[in-house]
From TrEMBL:
CDD domains assigned: GST_C_family, GST_N_family
Gene3D superfamilies in the cross-refs: 1.20.1050.10, Glutaredoxin
GST N-terminal domain residues: 1-79
Originating organism: Nitratireductor pacificus pht-3B
Pfam families reported in the protein's UniProt record: GST_C, GST_N_2
Transmembrane spans: none
UniProt domain GST C-terminal: residue ranges: 88-222
BP GO annotations: glutathione metabolic process
Keyword Transferase: yes
Protein name per UniProt: Glutathione S-transferase
Coiled coil residues, start to end: none
Organism lineage string: Bacteria, Pseudomonadati, Pseudomonadota, Alphaproteobacteria, Hyphomicrobiales
Record's keyword terms, sorted: Transferase
InterPro entries with a match to the protein in the record: Glutathione-S-Trfase_C-like, Glutathione-S-Trfase_C_sf, Glutathione_S-Trfase, Glutathione_S-Trfase_N, GST_C, Thioredoxin-like_sf
GO molecular function terms noted in the UniProt entry: glutathione transferase activity
Amino acid sequence: MLTLFHHPLYASCRFVRLSFGEYGEELALIEERPWARRQEFLSLNPAGTIPVLLAEGDHPIVGATVIAEYLDETRGALKREKRLMAEDSVQRAEIRRLVDWYLTKTEADVTRHLVRERALKPHMSSAEGGGSPDSATIRAARANVRQHLKYTNWLAGTRDWLAGKKLSYADLAAAGALSVLDYLGEVEWRDYPAARDWYSRMKSRPSFRSLLTDRVRGLSPVSHYADLDF
């Protein structure tokens, strides 16, 4: 079984878990606190970032998009209609664009700040950057949530899936990011009906089940988090 070093509230880690889940691959999960700079972990990834996959032969593969490319090359090519990356080069470019949107732009605008301020700081020492939440940072991130939900609502309302006619890595990247925000209760789904319908479909997929059982010490999820009919 492959091993993934992850944190339950990192969108990039959730993306990887969903991707393997769609292919029916089980992962052994090791929760990592990257801010702790654990020496054993740094020996696998000197950058100290997650996710990190220990692949066949215990070779470390670092970074969500790199892991996704590895997964596509080693498993996806055999999945035909269930492949998470398109055959067409233009469609592949659109999938990669949206993966980058949710794992890079949404992360920089919204997810990273809300997770750090609301969930991680209480478990960090002062030397690691812990302390009281920064209310100004939280307000700015919450203002940005609306723009990302509007864009997701537009995508979901004009396409069968976010990148086109088939489920793809784009949907899994978006689900990874938005499920973190949903856990934190930061999404007013009633304002974004198309995005809500898309997210409900995502939550109902078998690959999503392990995410719905995630719990973070000291921070319970919003009441509807595990509800498929929310």
